[in-house]
Amino acid sequence: MRHLAICVVAIALGTHAGQAAQSVRGTVTHFQSPAGVAEECVALDPIPGGFYSEQDRAEEKSFCAIDFHVPSVALCPKTWSTSAGTLVYDISSGTHANDPASFEREVCRRGGSAREEATRELAKYKQTINTPDSSATFSTASLLYYHLSRYFDTTVNVPVAVYRSMDKDSHLRRVTELGTQLTAEKPSLRMIHAGWSALREAEGNPESYRPTDELFTADRKRIYGILILTAGERYNSEINGTRESGWGSGQNRDFQHTAPYLALQSLKPLAEAIQEGVEEARMNPRLARDMGPEVLDEQMVFWMQELTEITLLDFIFSQQDRIGNIDYRRAWYWIEDGRVRSRAAHGKEPPEAITGLSPILLKRTWINDNDAGGRAAYVDFAEKTEMLEKIRHFNADTYRRLLALDSDFSQAGPLYAYFRDTFGLSQRQLGLIVRHTAHAAAILRETCRAGELRFDLEPETFLVDGGGSEQPVECNAP
To answer: Are the CB atoms for 14 and 381 separated by under 8 Å?
Structure first.
């Protein structure tokens, strides 16, 4: 019989991780497939000094309660965009209630999202796939982004992710075969079909995929990846850039001509930099259209802070596929008793309870697609197009935490040990993160020493006083 057990202490799983074959570490929930293959979900240990919300912990717990093999769970292949993944649905009610075989046979086979016919979507399950014809996907990157974002206490939203392994034969039978069939002979789905085809071959013969340890556990009976649940709408060119110069360096440079990134490059005080960035961006007709008739200063400050964080994380993790993959969700912000309050927005009219408090509607940025980072083989376009070098406005706490991270890495301190022991990274992958962190710190430290870095990005403070007062920061101190 299948069983579920939770280890409530942090333990190591000797399951995977590149050439080093190290382990992931965290709180482990055990499952068993119908064929008797052990499966695990791991909520990784928290990063030292990290800021985790109660919602973060609740989402980790919710993900690690999902048993792929119970009657109330169905699995469908993702059949759009460019990367292969599995959609995990709760089917405890509806036409196919508690009958995953019929749901997967009849609903999943239609392709596309099955959310409307399920009780709800529980998660997306994504594994690593890197071949010459497929989209770049490294599942561990989502874990890296989640936990390092909590160390930096980012304003930009990064989704919760947990490690999950699964019986490869069960995944092949229930998901991969159908994913390969549904994406075949469709030119627009060429990349995702290549991903499904590579996964089908690998699950049939694990040693055919290289590096094998990036997809399979050591016993080769299980694939592994991450569980994640994303939400939000895709920004247009106002944040994702026009992308008129093509994929790679070109679109990264286009991204640097958006209003918030232009403002970040200005040496002027914050209010003047905002005005300058908006005016210059409006000279491009497409940007002007997507920005709309008015861009609030408060919105610009949030965007500027979020883009510095995206650039920093992408620089550290060698992200090669950020532009065009930045999302948002709307929220109401207001001041009450001298404090900033917020709540998710549903529609463009504020809830009656806050109408008298002059709420403003802002877009809050989400980076949901973080899986093309963490590998030395990926091109670091943030580094290649010198994005950090051009920044002139920054958050003081983010700067101090970056220098502290770099200092810890250089001394093989607790943060270094955390990255070494928690994610199952190979020495090459760990070395990439250490080097890029040192490079990022050196770039911003040099800008600070030159007197060209203003520490005036604090969105919530800006909401309260409307100013851009700068904080004094010691450039060299971690």
So the answer is: no
Say if residue 377 is in the same domain as residue 269: yes
How far apart, in whole angstroms, are the C-alpha atoms of residue 201 and residue 309? 38
| Tokens found for residue 274 | 């905002």
Buried/exposed 201-217: b ≥16 CB within 10 Å, e otherwise: ebbeebeebeebbbbbb
List, in sequence order, every residue forming a beta bridge with 165; answer none if it has no partner.
224
Q: Are 360 and 372 in contact (CB under 8 A)?
A: no
Co-location of 242 and 191 in the same domain: no
Count of domains forming the chain:
2
**Helix residue spans in 110-208 (DSSP H):** 140-152, 168-171, 177-182, 190-204
Tens of pLDDT, residues 367-385: 999 999 999 999 999 999 9
pLDDT tens digits for range 311-362: 999 999 999 999 999 999 999 999 999 899 999 999 989 999 999 999 999 9
Judgement on whether residues 241 and 221 belong to the same structural domain of the protein: no
Q: Which domain holds residue 369?
A: 234-465
3-class secondary-structure state, position 129: strand
**CA atoms of 173 and 434, how far apart (whole Å):** 40
